[in-house]
């Protein structure tokens, strides 16, 4: 088939199918987010226009925002579908690098198609080209290499025959999943080639389920069987394997308490008797208490990030870790006994290996005892006060949510509130982007999630700082007709970083507006409701929790019936937080102009004594 490079790429996108979480078949690439410029409007733009009735194209307002929306699709579909984003060369391409970082850190699929300069170099230097004096092959798209699982620059049309199968491999591989970047020089996009029809044959991608090595499995079973106080930790890999049911049955059969990581939140029903709660700094005192006593930790589908492990102080010094993970890179971390396998298959075979073995029932009972204490603590935090707090806002949204709904956040103080305080109402219904903690993902990712999850209500919670950093995709979603609810908690600046700053002996500086340099006696304030309304959103400014409760009910209805974002704005307390009592290692100066800072440095040194290191 005589096609241009761009036409062939688009036809290949259409030919890729996937097995969706509910078992049905659907498109692997459900749509493309695009901002056109001279680097992609004629080649890829014309190719997309030819198939616009079969491959939806959504116009973004900011390349970072639309690429983050594409990331949101990957997370909302449990990595079964892949968002695509394309930009022109230069600044448009570089704007997408942050989104690639989000996908890379969170092991999420994302296909980026940035335009690139001419391979012929005949018109060089072209508009938006950055020239490297010693290497003419380098363009700004090489910036993607640090945040890509797979990077290629297509300099000949026929190179697609080699690279597209690898792109699909990375996007659908549970062990290697992450962003794929195919840089597309604008002259090559327009070149034609006689492509074999086989390139466009329909392919249905189904999740691979590697089974564990039998020797590793036997060793893992022996380790677990020797435990007196085992703890099962569920991470994002359990979610992407759709193995939550298997994990819960495993825990029930063997009487093992369960804790969840950030990416594993809402896998376990909140009131399950084995549910100890979320683990780590932003987790719960209940899960952390069990982790401190556990002699064996079975970590499934998690990379054990520092917020989960409290910088490796949450576990007992002599704990043994068994890591079951599809990615060998993650399975071998921190001296763990590694079992490389799909979460569902690995737990199934480990159950068979353990037989009728059970942990001490008194240990299992600790989960419900400790979680009851944590629940009582959260209930206290949710009780009304003079000024609404994050915990109270989360409580209202939580109480009014249904099993089909989906809740999101990404940065600032709200991740701690959702991870620690949310009570699951549906399986795998939370997206806390805390791998990269990207301010701005809250709104852009919600647009992608709303596209991917049309049946329930997507609710995103964010602070005023995140809103101001990236809000343009509110207009994109309103224009396209994708409804979701955004709850904007206005606490006068970057409150959680102010907390970190002052909590380690520093003076309040450049975070809360009271500490930010200004020439005005009374500096301006943002009217978030008016701003959101100007971009086509329904808006609900509220003053208290009762107003929030009423507004959230109305906002849900608007999102579903009017197909546009509904933005709730509420002033919240800048100093009230949900605390799990765990330690976190941060870089406090050893020498400083404030004695409070050097004292905090001494506290860090004391905390590091507890740190577990596996060499």
What's the helix and strand layout?
Layout: E1 2-4, H1 5-15, E2 16-19, E3 25-27, E4 32-34, H2 43-50, E5 57-59, H3 63-76, E6 83-87, H4 91-94, H5 97-105, E7 110-116, E8 150-153, H6 160-172, E9 179-185, H7 186-190, E10 192-194, E11 203-205, H8 214-225, E12 230-234, H9 236-241, H10 244-254, E13 258-260, E14 275-278, H11 285-293, E15 296-300, H12 306-309, E16 320-325, H13 328-331, E17 337-340, H14 343-354, H15 361-382, H16 390-399, E18 406-409, H17 414-421, E19 430-432, H18 441-452, E20 458-463, H19 464-469, H20 473-480, E21 485-490, H21 495-503, H22 528-534, E22 538-542, H23 545-561, E23 566-571, H24 595-608
Parallel strand pairs: 2-11, 4-5, 4-6, 6-7, 7-9, 8-9, 12-13, 12-15, 13-14, 15-16, 16-17, 18-19, 18-20, 20-21, 21-23, 22-23
Antiparallel strand pairs: 1-10, 2-3
Helix pairs in contact: 1-2, 3-5, 3-18, 8-14, 10-14, 11-15, 16-17, 16-23
């Amino acid at each position: 088939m005589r096609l241009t490079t761009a036409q062939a790429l688009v036809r290949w996108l259409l030919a890729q199918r996937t097995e969706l979480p509910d078992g049905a078949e659907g498109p692997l690439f459900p749509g493309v987010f695009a901002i056109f410029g001279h680097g992609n409007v004629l080649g890829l733009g014309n190719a997309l226009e030819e198939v616009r009735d079969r491959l939806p194209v959504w116009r973004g307002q900011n390349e970072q925002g639309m690429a983050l929306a594409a990331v949101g699709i990957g997370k909302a579909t449990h990595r079964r579908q892949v968002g695509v984003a394309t930009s022109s060369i230069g600044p448009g391409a570089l704007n997408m690098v942050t989104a690639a970082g989000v996908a890379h850190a969170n092991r999420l699929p994302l296909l980026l198609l940035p335009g690139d300069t001419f391979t012929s170099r005949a018109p060089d230097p072209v508009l938006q080209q950055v020239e490297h004096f010693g290497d003419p092959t380098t363009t700004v798209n090489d910036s993607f290499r640090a945040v890509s699982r797979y990077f290629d620059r297509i300099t000949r049309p026929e190179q697609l025959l080699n690279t597209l199968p690898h792109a699909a491999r990375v996007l659908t591989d549970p062990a290697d999943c992450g962003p794929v970047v195919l840089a597309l020089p604008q002259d090559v996009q327009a070149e034609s080639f006689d492509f074999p029809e086989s390139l466009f044959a329909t392919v249905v991608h189904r999740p691979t389920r590697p089974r564990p090595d039998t020797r590793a499995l036997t060793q893992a079973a022996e380790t677990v069987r020797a435990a007196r106080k085992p703890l099962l930790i569920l991470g994002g890999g359990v979610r992407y394997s759709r193995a939550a049911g298997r994990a819960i049955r495993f825990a029930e059969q063997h009487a093992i308490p369960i804790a969840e990581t950030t990416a594993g939140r809402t896998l376990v029903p909140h009131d399950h008797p084995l549910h100890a709660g979320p683990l780590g700094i932003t987790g719960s005192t209940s899960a952390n208490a069990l982790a401190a006593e556990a002699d064996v930790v079975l970590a499934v589908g998690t990379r054990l990030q520092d917020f989960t492990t409290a910088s490796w102080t949450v576990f007992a010094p002599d704990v043994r870790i068994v890591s079951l993970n599809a990615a060998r890179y993650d399975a071998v971390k921190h001296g763990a006994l590694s079992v490389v396998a799909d979460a569902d298959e690995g737990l199934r075979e480990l159950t068979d290996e353990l037989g009728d073995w059970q942990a001490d029932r008194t240990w299992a009972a600790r989960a419900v005892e400790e979680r009851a204490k944590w629940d009582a603590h959260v209930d206290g935090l949710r009780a009304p006060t003079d000024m609404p707090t994050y915990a109270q806002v989360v409580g209202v949204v939580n109480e009014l949510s249904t099993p089909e709904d989906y809740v999101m956040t990404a940065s600032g103080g709200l991740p701690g509130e959702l991870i620690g305080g949310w009570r699951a109402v549906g399986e795998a219904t939370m997206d806390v982007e805390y791998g990269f903690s990207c301010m701005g993902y809250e709104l852009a990712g919600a647009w992608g999630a709303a596209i991917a999850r049309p049946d329930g209500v997507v609710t995103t919670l964010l602070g005023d700082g995140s809103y101001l950093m990236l809000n343009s995709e509110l207009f994109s979603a309103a224009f396209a007709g994708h409804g979701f609810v955004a709850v904007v908690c206005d606490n006068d600046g970057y409150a959680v970083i102010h907390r970190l700053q002052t909590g380690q002996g520093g003076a309040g500086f450049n975070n809360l507006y009271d500490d930010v340099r200004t020439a005005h006696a009374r500096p301006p304030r943002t009217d978030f409701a008016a701003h959101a309304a100007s971009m086509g959103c329904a808006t609900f400014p509220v003053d208290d929790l009762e107003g929030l409760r009423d507004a959230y009910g109305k906002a849900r209805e608007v999102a579903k019936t009017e197909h546009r974002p509904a933005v709730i704005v509420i002033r919240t307390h800048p100093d009230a937080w949900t605390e799990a009592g765990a330690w976190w290692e941060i870089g406090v100066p050893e020498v400083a102009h404030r004695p409070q800072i050097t004292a905090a440095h001494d506290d860090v040194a004391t905390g590091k004594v507890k740190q577990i290191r596996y060499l």
